[in-house]
Design brief:
- This protein has 15 helices and 31 strands.
- The protein is an alpha+beta fold.
- Strands 27-24-26-25-29-30-28-31 form an eight-stranded antiparallel β-sheet. Strands 2-3-1-4-5-11-6 form a seven-stranded mixed β-sheet, with helices on both faces. Strands 18-17-23-14-15-22 form a six-stranded antiparallel β-sheet.
- The chain is globular, with a radius of gyration of 25 Å.
- The chain binds guanosine-5',3'-tetraphosphate.
């Protein structure tokens, strides 16, 4: 079993939209031998449509089930790439997917540098100490100075970085990269279809043949840059990377197949195998004999006539076996699965067993919520799947009183899937839906109508933040709930949530109730509101 676990490398590619995540993912699959032609994986359209196109959303849902996990074997390792949505409105999905990986590859556009979404994603990675490998993409375009880019990464993302390859110019004058780790030169050819990077060994950069390869002025500049880098950085320490203290940086151009092989080979060598995971009871180690796992994503069936869904489960320890009964901790019941699936690019296969690090798809008729834990009987819950405060809030107003039940069921099921967050008023029967983007409201309305035949309107509500509360004086929380009754709601796990209408009102609450801590997410140690 240990051998199986150590073989596995489970990760996600993350990026600000348009930096090249899809292109790089596809090229990794191509180089890994999982697909034969680029373009086979997914359409990018939904991400780019500003007005929503429901056919596209449906299509994308289909594609994204197929590409939720892409696995392939490469150099004796089993690589599991977890897909994350490209559209910014679905960023909460991405955050949840990040709970199921052991490392990430972060793609940066060399022209734009660190962008807004990059910062948010890195915040989530830092919270969990996820090791990060950085790929600076689009070197065939006139980008920022590479030293400035490194500086920007350190400052804006609050991480230490160390270049392991170094570019020779960018844009029209891009000549290639020098691999600092292997002391070799990889020359760039635009649009090259070659699959393997051609390295030229250059242990001594002062060798005159370097001038012939890339011109004297570029060779001099490279020598100068590398000397500077060697002066600034210590030799690369893989343990610091695995502890998420240092992010190695590579340069390349995904669309030109350039630097991808180098990235994949380094990833295989460096990236951690499945790591231990924290629960509310104890740390679970991947090599433990007994199976444990948690659900981090749920996908509805595309056929509205069939309500079954696919729950994606990350195996955290032991061996998962088909047709064996497992303990569903939240529901306190035994449950078994006849046809668990794994995914190989676009192929789905029924599997008999899965090991730590694997992600499997379980057909589900409504048993699962995001965050659910399965075990062989032990009562524990995996931690680290928080909900974050949404940015936009709307009240769902029922437009057809005869369909009240369907509407409620639809709302419950869609929010179980994690499409949006549901807040039910503590006094009264208001349903408030919170999301990070407008697109989800359209998706919800559309799906409620088509899958549950429930017609509703969405009315904007001016809430500023959802705040979860803790206090070592429970009486104070009770007092607050009474005092703010109209603004108190319950989330899906029955936690009390204060929906603050403005920063000012939140500040007043913080001042009036100093014994209460207000948090912007459901896992309290993460982000706390302060005056
Ligand atoms: P995303 O998933 O991170 O959102 O980005 P995606 O891969 O879709 O890439 C965004 C755009 O950047 C695409 O162009 C893609 O071709 C381009 N791109 C990716 N890598 C490179 C690169 O190394 N160099 C250059 N110059 N461009 C790159 P598009 O025009 O939006 O789409 P498409 O029609 O080319 O697919």
């Amino acid at each position: 079993m240990l051998e199986e676990i150590q073989k596995r490398k489970t990760f996600a590619v993350i990026a600000h939209p348009d930096a090249g995540k899809t292109t790089l993912t596809e090229k990794l699959l191509l180089f890994g031998g999982a697909i034969q032609t680029a373009g086979a994986v997914k359409s990018n359209k939904i991400k780019k449509s500003t007005t929503s196109d429901f056919m596209e959303i449906e299509k994308q849902r289909g594609i994204s089930v197929a590409t939720s996990v892409m696995s392939f074997e490469y150099k004796n390792k089993l690589v599991n790439i977890l897909d994350t949505p490209g559209h910014k409105d679905f960023q909460e999905d991405t955050y949840r997917t990040l709970t199921a990986v052991d490392s990430v590859i972060l793609v940066i556009d060399c022209v734009k540098g660190v962008e807004e979404q990059t910062e948010k994603l890195m915040q989530v990675c830092r919270m969990r100490n996820t090791p990060v490998l950085v790929f600076i993409n689009k070197m065939d375009r006139d980008g920022k100075d590479p030293f400035d880019l490194l500086d920007e990464l350190e400052k804006k993302l609050n991480i230490h970085v160390q270049p392991l390859s170094w570019p020779i110019n960018s844009g029209t004058f891009f000549k290639g990269v020098y691999n600092i780790k292997n002391s070799s030169l990889n020359l760039f050819q635009a649009g090259a279809t070659k699959k393997i990077d051609d390295y030229i060994q250059f242990d001594d950069l002062n060798h005159p043949s370097l001038n012939e390869k890339i011109t004297t002025s570029d060779a001099d500049k490279l020598r100068e840059d590398i000397e500077l880098i060697n002066g600034v950085y210590d030799p690369f320490d893989i343990e610091r990377y695995r502890k998420a203290d240092l992010a190695p940086v590579f340069f390349g151009s995904a669309v030109n197949n350039f630097g991808v092989q180098e990235l994949l080979d380094t990833f295989i060598e460096f990236a951690p195998s499945p790591l231990p995971r924290d629960t509310d009871m104890r740390l679970v180690k991947p090599e433990e004999n007994k199976f444990t796992g948690f659900v981090f994503k749920i996908h509805a069936n595309l056929d509205p006539k069939h309500r079954d869904r696919i729950a994606f489960l990350r195996v955290c320890s032991g061996k998962f076996e088909r047709n064996k009964f497992y303990y569903h901790v939240r529901q306190d019941k035994q449950i078994r699965f006849n046809n668990p699936t794994t995914f190989m690019a676009s192929e789905k296969n029924i599997i008999d067993e899965a090991f730590s690090g694997d992600v499997i798809g379980l057909y589900d008729s409504g048993n699962f919520k995001i965050g659910d834990t399965l075990t062989e009987g032990e009562k524990l819950h995996f931690k680290g799947i928080p909900n974050f405060s949404p940015e936009i809030f709307k009240e769902i107003v029922n437009l057809d009183p005869l369909k009240t039940k369907q509407l409620q069921k639809g709302i419950e099921q869609l929010t179980d899937e994690g499409v949006a967050q549901l807040f039910k008023s503590y006094h009264g029967s208001k349903n408030i839906i919170g999301t990070v983007g407008e697109l989800q409201f359209e998706v919800i309305q559309h799906r409620l109508m088509h899958e549950y035949q429930a017609k509703c309107a969405m009315e904007s509500r001016n809430y500023f933040k959802a705040c979860w509360m803790t206090s070592d004086q429970p009486k104070k929380i009770e007092e607050f709930i009474k005092y703010k009754a109209n603004y108190i709601f319950r989330d899906k796990d029955e936690n009390f949530v204060f929906l603050a209408e403005s920063q000012w009102l939140l500040d007043v609450a913080i001042k009036d109730f100093p014994e209460i801590s207000f948090h912007f997410n459901s896992e309290f140690k993460l982000e706390t509101a302060s005056l």
